[in-house]
């Protein structure tokens, strides 16, 4: 599980912004593609997680921002099926394991080439596979949240013309960001190699987390 300093969690919780207007069930668009209610707006610069900085030193190409790429993906039925397939496949093929058990470290980010990893490793592999399928990396952002157990967690936010969606190793369902029940702390920037704050935006609680 992603390590977050207590002061970061405390700051995020203190800064919670309760989002209004989110629906309890996602609206369905054409061809079964869901529509998110609102974009997840950034609110200023944020400090990058230490383990992300270390990962970027080892794999800089995975952290570079190409501003020539689109900020949002124009979703069609074929593309949505690709996103769903990649999310489900990686959730199946990676064995969840803590960094302590995997590497003997409190927090390490990596592409899980050995079939094992924790939340941020799922995220990095999903983004890599989707980028290889032709999706713009700039529109797929590693995002830090506080989950239903009040713990730090990493998910992949995909920004689309239909809203912002979350790919999560805890569930196969791809939800609009505003329907996950998470508190949103920060995400990668779309304009530079770095991170931006999400202001501790809170979303309605999800009753259960199921695959």
From TrEMBL:
InterPro entries documented for this protein: Transglutaminase-like_Cys_pept
Protein name (record): Predicted transglutaminase-like cysteine proteinase
Keywords tagged on the record: Signal
First and last residue of the signal peptide: 1-27
